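for the writeup, i need someone to sanity check this before i put it in the appendix. the sequnce is what the collaborator sent (i think, or maybe the updated version? ugh). structure was predicted straight from it, no edits. if anything looks off just tell me and ill rerun, i have time this weekend
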Amino acid sequence: MELFSLKNKTAVVTGALGLIGKEHCRALSEAGANIIAADLNETEAAGFALTLPTESIGLRLDVVNPESLRQVRDKVLQKFEHIDILVNNAAINDMFENPKAAGEQSKFENYPLELWRKSIDVNLTGVFLCSQILGSVMAIQKSGSIINIASTYGISAPDQSLYIKEDGSQSFYKPPAYSATKGALVMFTRYLAAYWGNAGVRVNTLTPGGVENFQDEFFITKYSARTMLGRMARPDDYKGALVFLASDASGYMTGANLVVDGGWTAW
């Protein structure tokens, strides 16, 4: 079990206050790492960091702002002296203010250019900047693990029929920007793994399936039927995979995409 230990390691988790982000922080902390819970709300991030079992801090981070990233980098190095793990978790998953209008607004034909650009900015450019500014520290110290959080919709097309309600109406369409950015993330992982391989920095993708989180019952039923395990994921279903990728247990693994989706993409 020593292989899975993260004792004396420092981990930065972006989007740390999200449903899965919090579980990422807990998983790494329980394995022994000190956590930087990074999100837009510093007060909430700091409060959450206090609940973790290791020495952890919460910092404000805007992943598309290079100066914000440099400030986080400097604060982390001042306190912990090194950065060993970066979890690029921050992302936009489009939500529409008016549920009744979401079916029309989320259609490809109507999808707003503003939302497309915003998703690319956060989901892709944000990962690029975090990796460039924080990952460069790992390259200098000749060790580190970067984990990019993608999605099953980055390796397989969304099943839009999941969003058809019992009355036959389409409640929502999974937007094109989500699949496009998550798919690009898988390739960016391979690029960076090849680029920094000689520097001792491993870069892998973790591809999770959908997490049950108070969605409509018809959606949960349909989604669950599409998985081999017959259910949606629980928020903590990815903890083991994340610790594996962050730790020496995956020491000979880089440029890979670890798919943890209940069998969704294996049919």
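The CA atoms of residues 84 and 144 lie 5 Å apart. Residues 2-97+115-156+176-213+235-266 form a domain with the Rossmann fold fold (CATH 3.40.50.720).
thx in advance!!
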